[in-house]
Amino acid sequence: MRTEATLNVSEIFYSIQGESRHAGYPCLFIRLHGCNLRCSYCDARYTYDEPGREMTVAAVMQEVQKTPGAMVEVTGGEPLLQEGVYPLFDALLADHRTVLLETNGSVDISRVPAAVIRIMDLKCPGSNMHQQMLPANLALLRPEDEIKFVLSSRQDYDWAREMIHAHGLAEIAHLSCSPVIGSLAPAELAQWLMQDRLPCRLQLQLHTILWPGQKRGV
């Protein structure tokens, strides 16, 4: 285990998991710096607009130990852009943590340890990044993983619905649909999901409800 490996970290904070099927549970977040995509609705631009801080995996684990037993999510930005993320996964798993990875779907996930739960975006046209997806990642997902669609319009919803049906995504992993705040009303999305009986969980960002207007540390 290479705990001397380094990471560029945007922030580490303890909060309530706001998304995924783990929403509502306390969670320690390790948000890494840098992203290869520029989604139209990005709510974490500071992960690439502002510098992070260099930390060894050992130093990150010292921060992790301040919340014993907590579930940990490694997020970004795009965490898989940093080679140091793999020793971090190993260290977290060795510490007997439940480990979540949030990844944007454009980077190969084949090296992610099997014990890590992957929450992978499938970018819709409204993101302006849907052409950057890596289709081979779909074959690497397991039933305990999750595919997340972030929707900003009816066009995005129709695209997601077609992808779900065309690729049998409900048989691959858990599915969630999340409306972009200010672009798509949650109640409207809920109505579409009910009408189509789409096997997809409606996801609202719980942290934006608990701490409205707070962009960091939640």
Description of the molecule:
The chain is an alpha/beta fold. It has a single domain, classed as TIM Barrel, CATH 3.20.20. It has helices at residues 46-49, 57-64, 85-94, 154-167, 186-196, 206-210; strands spanning 6-16, 26-32, 53-56, 71-75, 99-103, 117-121, 146-151, 174-179, 201-202. A 9-stranded mixed sheet has the order 3-1-2-4-5-6-7-8-9. The radius of gyration is 17 Å and the shape is globular. The mean pLDDT is 94.
Summarize this structure briefly.
The protein is α/β, with parallel strands linked by helices and 218 residues long. The protein has six helices and nine strands. It is globular.
Q: What labels would you give this structure?
A:
globular; 218 residues; TIM Barrel; 6 helices; alpha/beta; single chain; 9 strands
Sheet having the most strands:
9 strands, mixed
CATH fold-level name: TIM Barrel
Spatially, the strands of the biggest sheet line up as 3-1-2-4-5-6-7-8-9
Beta percentage is 15-25%
How many domains, as an integer?
A: 1
Structural class of the secondary elements? alpha/beta
Number of helices: 6
Radius of gyration: 17 Å
Q: What does the secondary structure layout of this molecule look like, with pairings?
A:
Blueprint: E1 6-16, E2 26-32, H1 46-49, E3 53-56, H2 57-64, E4 71-75, H3 85-94, E5 99-103, E6 117-121, E7 146-151, H4 154-167, E8 174-179, H5 186-196, E9 201-202, H6 206-210
Parallel strand pairs: 2-4, 4-5, 5-6, 6-7, 7-8, 8-9
Antiparallel strand pairs: 1-2, 1-3
Helix pairs in contact: 2-3
